Amino acid sequence: MGKDTLEIAINGLKLVLIFLMMVQAVPILVWLERRGSAFIQNRFGPNRVGPLGLLQLLADAVKFLTKEDFYPRTAVKTLFYLAPVFALIPATLAFCAIPMSTPIQVAAFDAFGSSWGPYVFKIQGFDISVGIVYILGMSSLAAYTILMAGWGSGSKYSLLGALRASAQTISYELALGLSIVGVILLYGTFDLTSMIQAQEGALHFQMMGQTVTSQFLPNWGFFYQPLGAVLFFAATFAESNRLPFDLAEGEAELVAGFHTEYGGFKMLMFFIGEYGHMMVASGLFAAFYLGGYALPIPSWNPAAVLHWSTELLGSKESGSVLAAIIHFLSFNIKFGLLLWIFIWVRWTLPRFRYDQLMDLGWKTMLPWSLANAMITAVGVYLASVAMV
Amino acid sequence: MADVIVFWFLALVTVGSGLAVVLLPNPIYCALCLAMTMVGVSALFVTLGAYFIAGVQLIVYAGAVLVLFTMVLMLFDLKSETNAFSRGVITGAIKVACAGVLSGLIAGAIVMTLGQRSSVVSPLAEKSAIDSTKALGKLLFQENVFAFEALGVLLLVIAVGTVSLARSKGGTHAKH
Amino acid sequence: MPLGGIIFLALFILAFGVFLIFLARKIGGRKPGPAVKFEAYECGITGVAKKDTKISVKFYLTAILFILFDIEIIFMYPWAVTYRDFIASGQGAFVLSAMFIFLAVFIFGLFWEIKSRALEWD
Predict the structure, then answer these.
(1) Reported ipTM
(2) Which residues in chain B have Cβ-Cβ distances shorter than 8 Å to A163?
(3) Residue of C104, C12, A227 lying closest to B152 (CA atoms)
């Protein structure tokens, strides 16, 4: 956590801030989803409360809070109430491991009769060197939330929805895990920051015994792993139970799946969990395939931006703050675009049938991601043999 | 200091949820507590510097095996089965015998290793996580490559066995 | 590895969530009503006990097959992360073929299951 009290305190505060930011982002995403869906379906969407309907978020929060607290007679109360709380934990813990910007440097200073620092604060909850394994492990715990809610509700629809949802989640976890193997092969590390650093500079590859360097394309993982990126992104849709994979809550057959019996704030917490999974997926996709927080222009790599802002502001510390802000914005643009794709797809594609869903996961995506891993392995081997 | 607090907290969570697995009457709670135990064990692996093993523990045990357990337990109506294995003299005798054997094993393990406690190094290893994973990879793919291939075949055998069992005729779900 | 941070955040979220649920219970309240109000949702008719719910063995099969494949995929991770080191030390071809043999068994298993209709949902 840190070397002294101040560093531990700031790192702890950072974790709380990231969590609160995730919670805050959810109403905005819900607004975006409702306005976006209205735009796609040629409707107005929420536009009465405040400018562009933005205050609708506030009104919704008040409404959620004042809803009557309901649990069915057949519910197992402990699980019924704990499930929405646990829905928040895996997504947040996973998201905290995603690097969002370059670190901020703080110079040594004297206060309270002792000297502090110098410090380096990362814009990332935890810096974990086995980041991918940790994130996968945390995300796999999300199945318990669903099962707890489904069984705890004491309702048939909830139980069926939970079983479907967990079977679907675990099926697509295979394709997800395998498509990440290609990424690990490419960068040779589990560490997300190292992956982002490996994507700096211009796109270059070996062809006919000489190195071809692109003038304007960045060295992003997407250009090396196009198939892996598509498979990864599709699998994350299923992982976060979003349309076209939201079989768990197919209204026509299962009412609302595992959250049939939930309302008010408890429902909102499930929503935060679902959007949290979308955020983890978008952040991971950005880190794996889109250069993470780096700017999309090859010569403006993080080191160059840091150098430029240091020149501009005159000191190393304020320069690192400016660079961190620039990279944070860059990360958020990629992140926001990916989240918009999640919303866009939801209102564009119809839902699958359950057998189609399972077929797609086991018979299409699993073999293809296996092929992707094998091709990447051979490619990495040939490329490094050609280098020698 | 912080390491010690983290260790004691994890030990408490792991042992506490492990005890809950044994003591709680409702199998669903038992399965969920067992999942909690697995998460605790995974965190304890981290304190020992075995980062990849910790991840595997989390993904395979907490994220897959116990999800299966919980799913299967939820398929049954458990209220009528809660008391099925809790009464009777023979069951009681088996329980006492099991508890005796287990505590004997633990006591034996403690007694036998009492004198040979190795030097106390901070378990939060100096070795970086990625190095320990790479060391594991080297061991696995250089020295134990045959065991690794054999494991692949073993997993295939399990898969075939499971599918055959699920498809066998005569059960309640047999295909016609 | 910031284990302390992970535990801290998990406990914080737990406390935060429990507090919110508690707050919503206090504000929302729980009003009395006819007994049928507290039944689980059953599209308007009187509920039937969930005892009768029979669930396809497919879910069980899917979960077991998932565990097996998950273990196989987990074994690819240390391989993938050490792969470049092996290539650098000249053992790339050996390790690649070792993994391809392992994957051949994997692929055989996968196609056997597809062919034996273990993964069919009908």
Answers:
(1) 0.85
(2) 71, 74-75
(3) C104
